[in-house]
Amino acid sequence: MGDSESGRSVLRNCDRPVACDRKRLPASQRLGITVHFDQIVVGSSLEALLYAFVHEMPVFYSAPHKPFRFDHLDVSLDLACLKIPHFSQSLKTHAGTKVVGTPKNLLWERLIFLLSIHGHAPLSDRCENLRYNGENIITFSDAYTKLIDIDFDECYYFGDDNARRMPKIELDSTKIICYDWIAFNRGGKHDIDYIESDDDFVKEIWFYSSDRIDGKTPVKDACVVSHLTEKELEDFDFSETMARFKAVSEMEARGMKGKYNGLGPNGKPKHYKFRTTCIGRGMGHTTETFGAHPAKIKVITKEDIKDTTLDTRQLLQHLSGSTLPYKQILDYL
């Protein structure tokens, strides 16, 4: 047999499917890759990323939880250590000027970027669910297959929507935050940025340059923030439609008017009514508790974050001393 025939024979043999009994494979090959970490963070909230960044821990999550678009840090906080320039914005309201600091989602994006570049976000956004085995291993998977097993000594758990067999999150049904996004199809051109009311329903109205129109448009849409109970959510009087109506009512009560429509018979100016449509509704919870959990899982709740060792402000104060491992990256930003 010549070399060419021998080569063809080898190729034919390679093309044949080979039966493989996975039960006879070593455990390391049968179960996939297992990586050990002394300490890990599970969660993708701003608090989780801050904790992972300051303590140089790897962070894992199944879905990114960016802060609310209009949540801001204290205007006095200096984030120059992260190459985030000092930010201060004055919002025009009917009661005067409201000054806000750096948007929290800007800090969130910078932290996840640095953690990823430094290798402390190993799975990035590839994971879609995770499962705890009850001892010391968490399995991370995407929609089709397992990605990796993480063996750990200590896990700081900040909560994850797609976690199985992790401590169960018990949400407070009496304190639910609703975000109603409203499009202004007419009457969206004005100079007001923020409205605050005394009612929990439509408690805040944030106006922003419309995302529906390309470029920096003077047309503004709005996000209405309400604090509701679970029972109120099921009531039409607190629905997206009523939130839209009440938002317009709050605007008109403060003297805001729609587009100018000439003069009436009495010589007074006329204005079109506001025309709005609902874009969507989102929800969040202000408080949450967790069920029983093993010793290796250290649950971090929003109440725990208020503690001096986990308070967001305390973690922010430690940022400047935690940027040394990232200096080479930050020098280019």
Write the layout of secondary structure elements.
Blueprint: H1 3-15, H2 27-31, E1 34-42, H3 46-55, E2 59-60, E3 89-93, E4 96-100, H4 104-117, E5 129-132, E6 137-141, E7 146-157, E8 163-164, E9 169-171, E10 176-186, E11 194-196, E12 204-209, E13 220-228, H5 230-233, H6 240-253, E14 260-263, E15 269-271, E16 275-285, E17 288-290, E18 297-299, H7 302-305, H8 312-317, H9 319-322, H10 327-330
Parallel strand pairs: 1-2, 1-7, 5-8, 7-18
Antiparallel strand pairs: 3-4, 5-6, 6-7, 9-17, 10-13, 10-16, 11-12, 12-13, 14-15
Helix pairs in contact: 3-4
Q: Main attributes?
A:
18 strands; alpha+beta; 333 residues; seven-stranded mixed beta sheet; five-stranded antiparallel beta sheet; elongated; FAD/NAD(P)-binding domain
How does this model look, in words?
This protein has 2 domains: 20-171 and 291-330, 3-Layer(bba) Sandwich (FAD/NAD(P)-binding domain), CATH 3.50.50; 176-284. The chain has 10 helices and 18 strands. The protein has helices spanning 3-15, 27-31, 46-55, 104-117, 230-233, 240-253, 302-305, 312-317, 319-322, 327-330; strands at 34-42, 59-60, 89-93, 96-100, 129-132, 137-141, 146-157, 163-164, 169-171, 176-186, 194-196, 204-209, 220-228, 260-263, 269-271, 275-285, 288-290, 297-299. Strands 1, 2, 5, 6, 7, 8 and 18 form a 7-stranded mixed sheet that branches.
